[in-house]
Design brief:
By secondary structure, the protein is an alpha+beta fold. It is built from eight helices and three strands.
């Protein structure tokens, strides 16, 4: 594995970690997997995120090419977010993470109380 990291200037694992690290980025991508959503729909799905933090995370995900932002020229403004082709490629990883988490919680039910 180390040889594969040496092939690039940035280790691919570090790159993915950087793309996904951030307040609720994984959850934002997870919910967008089900289809395009408006800002308030995303916020309703993640109630413990502030408007400012959600805006920052959406901008970061858009800058990294994982999501797109579609602004419709109507009043009031309508903005939708969705996964790009690149963003869709990360969904199998998120599904594996979800499966691992579900299995882990099943085998360690006391952990659910701590999170």
């Amino acid at each position: 594995m180390k040889e594969k990291c040496l092939k690039y200037e940035t280790c691919p694992m570090v790159l993915v970690q950087n793309l996904l690290s951030g307040k609720r980025k994984i959850l934002i991508l997870w919910y967008l997997n089900y289809g395009t959503l408006r800002f308030n729909e995303i916020r309703r799905n993640i109630p413990d995120i502030t408007q400012k933090m959600l805006t920052q995370q959406l901008r970061s995900l858009e800058k990294d090419g994982l999501i797109y932002r579609n602004v419709y020229p109507v009043i009031p403004p309508k903005v939708e977010y969705g996964l790009t082709r690149l963003g869709k490629k990360i969904i199998p990883i998120l599904k594996m993470m979800h499966g691992f988490g579900a299995d882990y919680l099943e085998k360690n039910p006391d952990i659910a109380d701590e999170t």
